[in-house]
Amino acid sequence: MKAVVLVGGFGTRLRPLTLTTPKQMLPVIDRPMLEHVIGGLGAHGVDEVTLSLGYKEDVFREAYPAGECARVALKYAVEPEPLDTAGAVRFAAEAAGIDETFIVINGDVFTDLDVRSVWDRHHEVGAAGTIALTPVDDPSRYGVVPTDEAGKVLGFVEKPPRDEAPTNWINAGTYVLEPSVLAGIDPGRRVSIERETFPAIVADGGLWAVQSDAYWVDAGTPDTYLQIQMDLLDGVRGQPVEGVSADAMIADGATVERSVVMAGASVAAGAVVRDAVISFGATVRAGATVEGSVIGPNAVIGERAKLTAMTMIGDGAVVDAGRALEGGRLPESD
Known about the structure:
The protein folds into 2 domains: 2-221, Alpha-Beta Complex (Spore Coat Polysaccharide Biosynthesis Protein SpsA, Chain A), CATH 3.90.550; 249-330, 3 Solenoid (UDP N-Acetylglucosamine Acyltransferase, domain 1), CATH 2.160.10. The chain is 19% helix and 28% strand. The chain has 6 helices and 29 strands. The chain has helices at residues 33-43, 57-63, 84-95, 115-125, 193-203, 222-234; strands at 2-6, 27-28, 31-32, 48-53, 68-69, 72-78, 102-106, 109-111, 129-135, 143-144, 157-158, 169-177, 207-211, 216-218, 249-250, 255-257, 260-261, 266-267, 272-274, 277-278, 283-284, 289-291, 294-295, 300-301, 306-308, 312-313, 318-319, 324-326, 329-330. Strand 2 and strand 3 (31-32) form a beta hairpin. It is elongated, with a radius of gyration of 21 Å.
């Protein structure tokens, strides 16, 4: 089984963390988000992944110089310019020489979906494309996918008003596609798989769906980036994991509750870290408070500083002693 993983976006919603690091290379507990995603694919039989790259593509190459991630072989396809989702899929599949059924997944989707079940259903019905669906409370942020009782897709409604959505089952960002789908994607221009490609397949009667209520989070926002880590600590996805690295330094008198403190990070005496992520090499100095926030690699939180309400501190940034930030961003960016 081969897969294309879309990782070319700019990650603007996660700035300032993504000013220096592509979204899928941000750390989750102890390793990049991408390794969690590819590891999940590998567990269900995927043995080759092509990364569809754009923004800061060199970071991915440098991280995996042997062409392997989570014991899955890697190939790289670097877009000459942003081609949107369908354009990126076509470019990556052709660059990798994919000429058989293949999987596509958004690189910021954290899920326990059994992709093999989507693969099997795809072949059972002879679909051109099969989409994994997940239920949500508010479908207005997503592509909504109504189906018949057998799972055949009847339409594809991108981001409808909440009170007009025909269903709460949304596109979960995982697809199984036939190579014939690529022929319907114009080369060399921006093409949206959600707005152009899928509606065209629906019109031809070839798009099917598989519903799954397995764990699923779009980890592309500050809230969900924090959530996926808290879910691992809380055991939402199985056995709870340990969030404090053995290579972190937690001083006597420091308080660390329900938080991730990565290798090389330090929390000084009198500091309070609660419901937060302290990334590799970051420093929280004496008396500081970090609550419900994310501190990037090598950042420094000064003495008695107070960071709350999803404050995000970027790579190497320094928060002055005594400063209070509520929902702040440092460094600030457009």
